[in-house]
């Protein structure tokens, strides 16, 4: 207990980091979470604008920000180099086809009160991103589990 009490901040930081790593893998959860968050942002936009006017547009939406390279790479690897549009799922790794252009997209668009949080991004190809625009929150729910508890292996 003494060790835990003495290192509580470091332990908390490691737990938060590990939890984010795990949750970041589940795009369906992220989609649903960001829809809830967008409802909260919409409801509290006046308060947000009052406290943080530099982050709010004239249309009362969160301002777009440029994201760092590590985020672009993390989204690419999480989405396995594949377009997140469930109707497309084209390869964006440039291993099979080199003509597809990668776009990093807000799962819940800023115009629908989405946020710039690192967990609100997905990988789309250029045609899917431009056709989605700010009207849709479409995202693939493909998620490869680490194990399957429903079908135990027979050893």
Quick tags:
single chain; mainly alpha; two-stranded antiparallel ribbon; globular
What structural category arises from helix and sheet content?
mainly alpha
User: How would the global form be characterised?
Assistant: globular
Number of domains: 1
Strand content: 5-15%
Order of helices and strands: HHHHHEEH
Strand order of the largest sheet: 1-2
N-C termini distance: 40 Å
C-alpha Rg, in Å? 19 Å
**Which percent bin holds the helix content?**
40-55%
Largest sheet: 2 strands, antiparallel
In the predicted model, the low-confidence regions spanning at least 5 consecutive residues are none
Number of helices: 6
Care to count the β-strands?
2
Average of the residue pLDDT scores? 85
Describe the structure.
- By secondary structure, the protein is mainly alpha-helical.
- The protein has one domain (10-132).
- Helix content is 41%, strand content 6%.
- It contains 6 helices and 2 strands.
- A two-stranded antiparallel ribbon has the order 1-2.
SSE layout:
Elements: H1 2-6, H2 8-24, H3 27-43, H4 45-51, H5 69-78, E1 102-106, E2 121-125, H6 126-132
Antiparallel strand pairs: 1-2
Quick structural summary:
By secondary structure, this protein is mainly alpha-helical. The protein has six helices and two strands. It has helices at residues 2-6, 8-24, 27-43, 45-51, 69-78, 126-132, and strands at residues 102-106, 121-125.
